[in-house]
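S1.2 Input.
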Amino acid sequence: MSGHSKWSTIKRKKGALDAKRSKIFSKMLKDITIAVKEGGPDPDSNPRLRLAVSNAKGGNLPKDNIARAINKAADKDSANYQEVTYEGYAPHAVAFFVECTTDNLQRTVSNIRSYFNKYGGNLGTNGSLSFIFDRKGVFTVPVGTIDQDEFEMAMIDAGAEEITLEDDMFNIISELESFGSIVKKLEDMNIEPSSAELQRIPRTTVTLDKEAAQKILKIIDVFEDDDDVQNVFHNMELTDELAEELGL
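S1.3 Output.
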């Protein structure tokens, strides 16, 4: 976790993600389901499904699981999911932006509110954190045999605003409006990203000491353990020094 990159504040420890692999797979399958419901089961004519499948492959979701999810979602009797977001504050004025996918809105909002209340935070109204978070496209692309200069020029032409190289991966950030053009450019170049998604990037961050940061990480885990929660974004600064203290 690098402290110099403004979007590193929302990256999480790989080991923790590996420990939650079944939960991650479940979230990928929901993404596929929603994409199929929106645009049909053919990835060639459904860009959102194509992206969901690409992310699932990048996350090592087995191909058979992907195929079954597409077939199941194409059944008109399968569950219908809603995408909803919640905004609020955790202790120490840390802003939380929570993205959910649910088939029971009442259950989801009740759970989200209870998490905020239990840990001394508060659920706000939608739009209350729009001044803190920007929605950006975030891509990770394996370096492999890619020509770095040629690749970076192509990404800039497609609308990338920040490109960094870390651990043999290109990390790319774009404005929301350029997300689609970068996805298309990668497809045209026959490059499959490890992940391509829209994230909430904080404009301002909150710096905490080790003890306070540990409490926030615990709250994040509580939210992420909820089956309805797809993503939790926050604006706690995870510097290199703090990450090392926390063993991340």
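S1.4 Remarks. Residues 82-131+203-246 form a domain with the Alpha-Beta Plaits fold (CATH 3.30.70.980).
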